Amino acid sequence: MTTIKDIAKAAGVSITTVSRALNGYSDVNEKTRQKIIEIAKQLNYSPNTLARGLVMNKSKTIGLLVSGLTRESAKDNFTFEILSGVNQYVSEVDYDMVLFSTTSTKQREKTYTQLCRERRVDGAILQGIRIDDPYLQEVVESDIPCVLIDIPIKSETVGYVTTDNVLGAKKAVRHLLALGHRDIAMINGYEYAFVSEQRLRGFCEALLEAEVPFREQLVADGAFKEEKAEQEALRLLTCYPEITAFFCASDLMALGAMKAIKKLGKRIPEDVAVVGYDDIILASYTTPPLSTVAQNQFAMGYEAAKLLIEMLEGKATSHIKVLETELKVRESTFKNHE
Amino acid sequence: MTTIKDIAKAAGVSITTVSRALNGYSDVNEKTRQKIIEIAKQLNYSPNTLARGLVMNKSKTIGLLVSGLTRESAKDNFTFEILSGVNQYVSEVDYDMVLFSTTSTKQREKTYTQLCRERRVDGAILQGIRIDDPYLQEVVESDIPCVLIDIPIKSETVGYVTTDNVLGAKKAVRHLLALGHRDIAMINGYEYAFVSEQRLRGFCEALLEAEVPFREQLVADGAFKEEKAEQEALRLLTCYPEITAFFCASDLMALGAMKAIKKLGKRIPEDVAVVGYDDIILASYTTPPLSTVAQNQFAMGYEAAKLLIEMLEGKATSHIKVLETELKVRESTFKNHE
DNA sequence: TTGAAAGCGCTAACAG
DNA sequence: CTGTTAGCGCTTTCAA
């Protein structure tokens, strides 16, 4: 493999000059530069980023740290869209992305901080990490620049991107209220997620606005899982047959709720309406299509990468980005062709 | 950041000894080793993989080169599952994965070979690359070890993993034939894919077996796109109203075909049956659920990574892996509760 | 405008 | 069992 040394020899100059020429420094004779570039091309030269990273002490690489990159998680392709967005921005600014997945048994032995340090990533984006994850604390307290998805921690080196989950939930619940629903149940995610707390708050606030009393027993923990949500929905519908609508903190859980409703022989939306959250691909393909609060995960990934790299280059103005959500009304709440 | 030099000083030994102790060489006094490990832990040492990579001339990193990591491609999460599988194996054997996406404009300027060389990846896995991609040729002819997904190229440094696409297609068509269909149309992918050719072959062979004449005009090019497939299905059904079944070379195209069939007011499967290929998540959620030839993409990714790393370590016996497919019969071909 | 020299953190002969 | 030395490919003072 060609090195700048080879080029230097071929061009009859020093390696210093080659380095400067190739890196676009101004203090190099234009003629020399042309010659060097020409030779580099001929010799099929590729710079060695390892060597460069070693001396410059930065790798132009960021780490994407995700949890749950399993075969099952593909259903809810949240992670994938984040990843696509991150990748998009990162490659626009000529960085690379290395993927760390915390589900893989081997890497469990290492903390996130170690993972990042060893690969000498310049910064990291964290996605799908639970707020009670012990390694999370460690990494945000380290000196590694981090951007978190949906976890509101901010410091000198830490920022986050999220959506307005309170408002998002409100939109969903207001929609149900506007349709006349009063007995609305909520299937929330597990408590170890910031979004769960926020969405619950939105749920409550919307009820308050409409002067509908909040009944705690109508809130269940679906743990962001389809099956768990199905069980909980089944339980709720049985104990509280007055329920006419579900607000679910994720589409996956909404799928579970829909299954439960159908199992009990009830119709959607005539007997029970359902609203989800996320707008996963599946949402528009279910029967009936699922109304949901859409968040643009690709954009979240993109903005996270952008924020991180701005932080790395010292030109981040704010460390926080809050994106918008959009309520998508489909037939699981409302049939307009009756 | 701590280096082995710091450890050496603290332990009162040479850096060589530290290196050896930490890397588990046998020729180091057990007591010394313990002391060194202890100090390393105290000092919160993380090895610098850049430095190690530089001197050892290998990075313990592989590149995953994919095309089409766009927001739209999430629907068909083929890429994501491959990625998950690759990541799984890679982390089991303590490698890292860096992602190169060819859609991102910036990287288009660089050939795949350059991408790999610059990051000094030890090898690469290529997915979703068209066989007429000019950079593909270059990279397989380079000295970079490669494993291709669904592209049958084999050499000293190149291997591939695929499924038996001829057989897969046969299974699907035999199923249709067994149900009594004789006028079967096929919506194939674009020709720049190995799998298209193979699936067409399977289609023909199955017809031959059943002594049903092959009619070329019943084969359309859906380009692996939902919309294009819909158009083509519409055209076929209009020109050849005798068609009672579609075999589609991807589920995405099958979705398109189903739309077309519904538009014409025909029922699935009573009037027209549909079989897809891939078994994407959506397949079981369509109305009616889609019969399809399932391939385990997670396994494909996993096996590709395994093959690549075996090749890197010189212990690959074969450079080819062919995985199995499975026909999943759902209601788009057959209703058993009539 | 150019070159010599040092050094990033690590591994690998080689010698003791 | 341990240390000395050289060097991976590159950037960066400092001098010329």
Question: Could you describe the 3D structure shown?
Answer:
Two copies of one chain form a homodimer. With 338 residues, the first copy, chain A, is of the alpha/beta class. The first copy, chain A, has three domains: 4-47, 434 Repressor (Amino-terminal Domain), CATH 1.10.260.40; 61-163 and 297-324, 3-Layer(aba) Sandwich (Rossmann fold); 165-294, Response regulator (Rossmann fold, 3-Layer(aba) Sandwich), CATH 3.40.50.2300. Chain A is 43% helix and 17% strand. The first copy, chain A, has a six-stranded parallel beta sheet, with helices on both faces. A six-stranded mixed beta sheet of chain A has the order 7-6-8-9-10-12, sandwiched between helices. In chain A, helix 8 links the parallel strand 3 (123-127) and strand 4 (146-149). In chain A, helix 9 (165-178) packs parallel to helix 10. Chain A is elongated, with a radius of gyration of 26 Å. At the A-B interface, helix 4, helix 5, strand 2, helix 6 and helix 7 of A face helix 4, helix 5, strand 2, helix 6 and helix 7 of B. Strand 2 of chain A pairs antiparallel with strand 2 of chain B. The structure holds a DNA duplex (16 and 16 nucleotides).
Report the structural category of chain A: alpha/beta
- Counted by DSSP, the helix tally of chain A is 13
Query: How many structural domains in the coordinates of chain A?
Result: 3
State the share of residues found in helices of chain A, binned by percent. Answer: 40-55%
Chain oligomer state = homodimer
Average pLDDT over all residues of chain A: 93
Low-pLDDT runs of 5+ residues of chain A are none
Largest interface: A-B, 51 and 50 residues
Domain HTH cro/C1-type (chains A, B): 3-50
Domain HTH lacI-type (chains A, B): 2-56
InterPro entries (chains A, B): Cro/C1-type_HTH (IPR001387), HTH_LacI (IPR000843), LacI/GalR-like_sensor (IPR046335), Lambda_DNA-bd_dom_sf (IPR010982), Peripla_BP_I (IPR028082)
Keywords (chains A, B): DNA-binding, Transcription, Transcription regulation
